[in-house]
Amino acid sequence: MRHSTYECNKGCPVEATLEIIGGKWKGVILYHLLENTYRFGELRKMMPGITQHTLTKQLRELEGDNLVLRKIYAEVPPRVEYSLTERGESLREIILMMRDWGRVHLGL
């Protein structure tokens, strides 16, 4: 969720970025959405450690920050798909750099 005030110091931009994409799951969700559009259940299977409640909450926050698009299809039962917005896509390089750093850190 967007917040308009940050500490007025040199860390402001980093603080703003971490508030939007920080936490245990948001980066992982964004990473998966870099490659494809997914339904809720598909995302949940890719992240076995996340609860349904947490995934719902994180997706809503990412949607509220205009990083993720939630598309609902008029079907019975309704089909919902998640994809990156243009703003979310702008994080591609950052997310991939985090992936690469993690691979090195883990010795992969």
TrEMBL record:
Keyword Transcription regulation: yes
InterPro entries recorded: HTH_HxlR, WH-like_DNA-bd_sf, WH_DNA-bd_sf
Keyword entries, A-Z: DNA-binding, Transcription, Transcription regulation
GO molecular-function term, one example from the UniProt record: DNA binding
Ranges where the HTH hxlR-type domain occurs: 12-108
Record flagged with keyword Aminoacyl-tRNA synthetase: no
UniProt name for this protein: Transcriptional regulator, HxlR family
